[in-house]
Amino acid sequence: MAGVRRVVAVALGCALVTGCSSPWATPPLPDPSASPSTGPSAASGAEPAGSRSYSPPPWVLPRTPAPTSPAPTSSTTSEPATADAAPAPEPRRAYLTVPRLGLRDFPVVRYRGSPDDAPGTEIQNDGDLASPRGPGGGVAAGEVGNHIVTGHRLSSTEPFRYLPSLPRGSRVLVRVGDTVHVYEVRRTRWTSFRSQESLAAQRAPVPGRPGVEATRPMITLSTCATLEDHAAGNYWSDEFDNPEHRIDKIGVLVATRPA
After folding, report:
1. pTM metric for this prediction
2. pLDDT above 70 covers what percent of the chain?
3. Rounded-to-integer distance, Cα 125 and Cα 103, Å
């Protein structure tokens, strides 16, 4: 019994003395906040004998890293892409050349309306050719659809005086800005101003074929059939003195080139 008391006393005494270790002493846990690279063996790179790696218990949340500022952008960063510029508006005036008719760079004035209406008739009375745009008219030269050009035959400057005799295969050139659109005449049709169906066919995207979707640029050159109507005893005319019938030359685009 005395021997046991002596061993316990020695153990307690050693616990109070610095540097004394006891077989029952619990080694302290490493500080989880200490970085392994700052430990006493960091300089030598050797791990102390008997040391153990520390794994924090599952209830210890990992530290949230401090927010970092974004890296500065280079001064050579490209500018953001900009939207394409809107296309230039169609010029109000184009120029028509028909070698077989002796026409060269004859002015064609576009307007919003339908063929041979009040604005169109006024343009023709002033001596120019007229080209309607909008739901009741046609499209611009070179565009897919029906480009309509109307002109007087027996009054004003008479630009289309000989249009009815223009044969198939004749070339029609429309110059717009720095581009020339070349059409070739393919057929002739007649339009009656007293028939809404006939007028709709004249203005259709595919001339003479209402309801058919256009797939290529086409052209309609139109003038009055006054001589033919009068010869047949038909003297009907509308409020603008247009006779019942008009003679239309229909062509298709075959080339486009710089002016």
Report:
1. 0.67
2. 66
3. 18
